[in-house]
Amino acid sequence: MVLSENLNPFPTKQSSTYMKKVWLIIQREYLTRVRKKSFLVTTFLVPILMVGLISSVAFMASKSEQKQDIAVIDESGIFINRMDTGSSYAIHYIKDVPGSTYTELLEKNNWDILVHIFPFKNGVPDSINMYKDGGVSLNAKEFISNDINTIYQIRQMQDAGIDKRKIDSINSSSIDVKSFDLKSNQETSSEIATMIGYVMGLLIYLVILLYGVGVMRGVTEEKTNRIAEVIISSVRPFQLMMGKIVGIAFVGLTQFVLWLILTGVMQLFIPLLVPGLSGSMHAQAANAQHVPQNEIASLLQALSSQNWTLILSCFLFYFLGGYFLYAAMFAAVGSMVNEDQQEAQQMTVPITMPIIAGLIIMSSTIKDPNSSLSVFGSMFPLTSPIVMMARIPYGVPAWQIVLSMIFLVVGFVAMTWLGAKIYRTGILLYGKKASWKEVIRWIRYS
Amino acid sequence: MLEISHLKKYYATQKAVDDVSLSIGKGNIFGLLGPNGAGKSSLLRMITGITMPDSGSILLNGIPFNLDTHSPMIGYMPEERGLYKKMKVGEQALYLGQLKGLSKSEALQKIESWFDKLDMQSWKNKKVEDLSKGMSQKLQFVITVMHDPQLLILDEPFSGLDPVNSAVIKDEIHELAKKGTTIIFSTHRMEQVEEICREITLINKGKVILNGDVAEIRQQFKKHIFRLETDGELQGFDQYIIERKDTRYMLQFPDNEDANEVLAYCIRNHFKIMHYSEVLPSLNEIFIGLVEGDGAFRKFESVSN
């Protein structure tokens, strides 16, 4: 085998022409994609849609809370005129009309909910029922039941001889419990951590799938166009594959940065798009009993207390690591299929399965970031990009992050090696669909 | 300039190239012939460095094959043409030229001169998908030759080309050969080979079954068949006549000596001779005969149709 050294796709010496050609391929892959209309459309549309969605949800939340009419039949006489109406309910105290059904009572006045408080037996509540066409919503039930219980408790306290003013002061006192991160001694918010973790994990999932499939399509296109054969006579298959993968990675980064900028810019326009939104949000916050007035401020504070340098640098690492790990596999699959796109979808199943597994693990991770499943998921290179991002906002020991990163790099190298082996045989094989069995042979004998 | 010895490439199901040795001199137009599945493409893919041989050696100008140094010396036009459909013609030529090692300015300069030469300037900003089949064929040719390869490998270069463009490409091929470019021309269309190539190799089932100069091969396989057009009737040559239409004859002799007797007979009888010539077998006939004997005739026929 005199020739094997010369035809080796991985030359021992990295000549400058080797990199120059890879760079040319990267440029082409990048420019053809970035210049496409679809790139511009998704780049501009996604932030518009995101902002539109956020503002329309906010808008709906601020407007849609139509007042519900609640009719109360109080046979105990304890609750009449004492119930708190809140901002979203109107309470009408009525007398039971013998001979007419609840439905008739509600329909007559066009009310929504009927609460029937039956007479107390020996000073103890007997039964209190709520009725609504189609069932009572959770919100309404919680509201009424809170209301009734508070009134009943106050009454019991009064019966026990506690001064009314004292009761009022007890009720209005509340202690704010804060949670802190042990290491940084900074206040944390598990809600914020959940949110950040979820968004980050989901983004990585989307990126891997979106750009991975982009790599696959590109490879299949080159194969079916037969341009691969022309190019492989100038460069090694590995150069072509890596050029494509890296080029698309740059496209992804570009798009991501543009999304960040555009979303940031557009966020400034939300208040303009939905006038009066911030006002009504404050009003709501003030109205709600258990939510402190400065909730938004504390949210912002919790957000800024997160270690954003760590989160963003980890995001960048797992974004690229996860993408590179899977891209080589997508390239391999792209090289195995012919024109048939359905075929391609079938072949991607073994690749998409671990990605989806990562997403499933992530959904449990955001609830319990230190469970053994979460720790495993954040170490295993096929799922770690998604799962680790969901853990990071909660704080992860440094050694775990380092170990997970090492595994990811090792996994990426292994997958690229494996993918390249499949790729360089598949890209030149026309006509028939390659079975997995055959692919294993390619790996073993190439 | 190209020296191939004992080249082998075995796949799981077949021996694609089985101990092939070839030698092609500089400036030669060399025909590589064989039915589909004979191993032509496998052989060409190894020469271009697309695949690795299992064993054997490929020397280009005496140097063992190495993709980095040899790729710029080789121009390869595969049978299945490959171009990026969505890319503009000019950009595509620039990109592929640069991949062959041309600098940007060199590539642009080559594109200018070739596009001028083949009257393609107006296509530059068109996308490849908007070109006709013949147009993209021409573009593919330009892309293959624009980096001035020393070895040009053309796999079925005329398929899909109209006669006018075929002639244009043929002229270019001859001109390149005159400048010293070595050309390997792979096809199963024998009449094109006779027209263009001086030397040929026929391979079938991965093996070389015939190799040599086109004229010599035709001599070697001649069956002493002569065509005679005259105005009188031949008497006493019945055993030689294989076909007759009025006074036009096809004659087959044991050797060329006997052929002269017919001529002498005609002259003796004062026949007017309009035509008398030896009919050499076409490459097509030779190959069908050889391949048929090889048991692969059917395959071959279905291809050449």
Helix content of chain A: 55-70%
Strand content of chain B: 25-35%
Broad shape of chain A? elongated
Amino- and carboxy-terminal Cα gap of chain A = 14 Å
Count structural domains of chain B.
2
| Number of alpha- plus pi-helical segments of chain B | 11
Oligomer, anyone? heterodimer
What's the pLDDT, averaged over the residues of chain A?
Answer: 79
Helix coverage percent of residues of chain B?
A: 25-40%
Which regions of chain B have little confidence, pLDDT < 50, spanning 5+ residues? 295-305
Number of helices of chain A: 18
Sheet with most strands of chain A: 4 strands, mixed
In total, the number of strands of chain A is 6
Structural class of chain A: alpha/beta
Number of strands of chain B: 14
Task: Summarize the entry for a quick read.
The complex is a heterodimer of chains A (446) and B (305). By secondary structure, chain A is an alpha/beta fold.
